[in-house]
Amino acid sequence: MIQPVIAIHGGAGAMSRAAMSPEKEQEYLSALESILAAGQAVLARGGSALDAVTEAVRLLEDCPLFNAGHGAVFTSAGTHELDAAIMDGATLRSGAIANVHRVRNPVFAARKVMENSKHVFFVGEGAEVFAQQEGLELVDPSYFSTEARREQLLRVQRETPEAAVLDHDGQAMVARGQPAPADPLDADKKFGTVGAVAVDAQGNLAAATSTGGITNKQVGRVGDAPLIGAGTYASNKTCAVSTTGTGEMFIRMVAAYDVAAQMEYCGASLEAAADRVVNEKLPTIGGKGGLVAVDAQGNVALPFNTEGMYRGYARVGEKPVTAIYR
């Protein structure tokens, strides 16, 4: 009998302990723990891995501490463009959406694409029309905005107007010179996405990923999060993976699928495959970030090549484990 487990991430980057107040650290750890507990509860009552990752990512989207849904970062035009993907390891069914700006919970839209469409990927207006037809909640774009993220955009545009800064990096920029930093992550080195992976009691795997992209990004840019095989992948044969990092590099490496491919074709363990992708292959092209992964036996891997990653896992019947630093 497999012991069901869920793992989540909320972004990776260069994290300064000096900039982290005990209160801020506890705020992040508490958020991670409560979200893990919710996903764990789904698995504990016999729920599917798909339902568990959907619930965890929904809660991550609703939490303004993380760069997805409410609290998403701003584009260079001062707008929000949200992306998400989900994949069922039992069937290889998957769904994804990108560049939406009114869907409250993009992970719900991705799942509707997977379950109720003959397609895999919708973008922009077509994705929003599909979500509306499926009865999903649409909100005014202002719902996604927070004052901290707006200050982040303005600071980035003042200091490095041509740069696109990755998630909480910008929050740390806002924090410079303030006694209580808005975020513990270094402003130029934080990569923000949220994601979840799980295996249920039936041995089925699932993965889901969601993001607001990168601060000051060019309108229309899409990273790895919604791309099946790059930022999200799940197969019962091998593993479920959700990534966070420099999206363009994860796309070029097809990073999430690479973990599964090493397991399937080379017989690598989950830990060895995930470590090789994150700590050996991605750095060859400047790829920074990390991933969370689980395999069909319930093993968990959470490698990252930055100073830290918001992360955690929870096995059914055990207390959730959360961490930020190494």
UniProtKB/TrEMBL annotation:
GO biological process: proteolysis
GO molecular function annotations of the record: hydrolase activity, acting on carbon-nitrogen (but not peptide) bonds, in linear amides; peptidase activity
Family annotation (Pfam families): Asparaginase_2 (PF01112)
Binding sites annotated in the UniProt record for substrate: R221, V222, G223, D224, T244, G245, T246, G247
CDD domains listed in its UniProt record: Asparaginase_2
InterPro entries registered for this protein in UniProt: Ntn_hydrolases_N (IPR029055), Peptidase_T2 (IPR000246)
Keywords for the protein's UniProt record, in alphabetical order: Autocatalytic cleavage, Hydrolase, Protease
Active site: T193
Site, Cleavage: residue positions: G192, T193
Name used for this protein in its record: Isoaspartyl peptidase
